Amino acid sequence: MILDSRPFLIILPKISMEVECSSMCTGSLEACLDKVELEQLKWRKISAEGLDLGYTILLPPSVASQLLEHLESNLDYFSGDLAKVYVYGKWHPIPRQQVAFGDSGMSYKFSGNTVPAMMWPPILLRVRDLISEITGYYYNFVLVNRYKNGTDYIAEHRDDEKDLDPVVPIASLSLGQARDFVFKHRDARKSGPEKKDISSVKLLLEHGSLLLMNPPTNKLWFHSLPRRKNCHGVRLNLTFRKVLKTPGT
After folding, report:
1. Is the pTM of this model over 0.85?
2. What is the pLDDT confidence band of residue 22, given thresholds at 50, 70 and 90?
3. Residue 194 lies in a domain
4. Which residue among 2, 60, 91, 213 is least crowded, i.e. fewest CB within 10 A of its CB?
């Protein structure tokens, strides 16, 4: 664990990923995903005051790059009102691109907007099933965020909406440009006597990595993907969630 010169910030070193010839996959993308050896994954456990994370390199670089290329060629992103959020009494353009997929009739409400789920593309179903094998949970929704470069970002927030199953970890798959992901405890964001001296945690999300945000993380910790002007590549993030169905749906 490396301490940064900035106050109260813990930086977690990245996992070294040695890619042997045997781990390279030259078949179809679907076949390569089927060959991912889950029992060989190296996991890092990250814990703090109510912070419970699991981090691993899920996909070898060749497979992650193939998946990124496929999604870049085949995904269309939301526009118009679906590309806005309602914050501080005003509608604002989302500083990134988004699209969502899921089971029939699913939607997800956040920041004043209701995001409908498009029909699952076959390749995302395969990725979903792979992640479900890891966690033991069924995911019925995925939100895809596209960051064109380091000027795109996501502000501090918690994925604590009532329509998310609180016991199911959010599974976050990163593709492309590595970016910093910062966690900050809710009590560290307060002012006055209620403010607590709790260190923030920064994690580098690498190409092909999987981050599991286990409960009660999203209840107690905010997270963000800050701007990074020195990051010039595209990043895709796929966050798989279990959305609760409302009565009558």
Report:
1. yes
2. very low
3. yes
4. 2
Percent pLDDT > 70 in the chain is 88
How far apart are the C-alpha atoms of 88 and 66, rounded to whole Å? 40
Q: Residue 92 sits in which domain range?
A: 41-241
What is the number of domains present in the chain? Answer: 1
Q: Binding site: residue ranges? A: 108-110, 145, 147, 157, 160, 223, 235, 239, 241
> In the structure encoding, which two tokens stand for residue 81, read together?
């009102």
Mean pLDDT for the chain overall: 87
Residue-wise pLDDT tens digits, 122-154: 999 999 999 999 999 999 999 999 999 999 999
Which of 113, 114, 127 has the alpha carbon at shortest distance from 70?
127
Does the residue 193 lie in any domain?
yes
Q: Is residue 211 part of a domain?
A: yes
Q: Looking at residue 139, which CATH number applies to its domain?
A: 2.60.120.590
Residue 63 domain flag: yes
DSSP alpha helix (H) spans, the chain = 29-34, 61-74, 122-135, 217-220
Q: Return binding residues for 2-oxoglutarate.
A: 145, 147, 157, 223, 235, 239, 241
